[in-house]
Sequence to fold (197 residues):
Amino acid sequence: MVRRLWRCLVPALVLVLVAGPAWAAVTLTFYAHPGARVRDGYLLFPHAYVHASGTLDATGEAVDWSAGFTARNPGPQLLFARGRGEVASPDARYVGEGVPYLRLTVTDDAYRAIRARADWWGGEEGSVYDLRRRNCITFVADLARLAGLETAREPSMKPGGFLEATAALNPEAAIRTDIVQASPPQASAPHMPRAFR
Fold:
């Protein structure tokens, strides 16, 4: 009995050790933060961002990266003029408060391309922030297209509405099963960006 068990376990163990790196993967999750409340003295506004987690296939390096695009100097001036934007990383608490809409596994190359594109948004050329035309939603839409997703109409000012409509266009990546068909989000009253704290 022990011999038979041993004969079955050894090949299985070898298979696990050989195939182990193939199980590595990076998962992208696109979130909307509901905002509209005060936390730690800061007024939080609706926001969209992406979180990547997992392991790179090629190196086994762990991935835990989050990013959203926000105004460097939030304030009422953004209702009338463009400003400087920045790519900021929300903390774990902020990510935990968000609502996930889309999740998909990407290749190492796709993950690297997404990180490079996020770096571009944070650089001199890509850092223009416009509340109505180039905001957190435009940022996540750009990264979602790089990941191979079809995106809803933009620009939008409703992060949750935009991601719900995008999830309806990509049912294979949609997290919520109640999203069957959604219309593209319409522009609404402006939301003010909030840097991550």
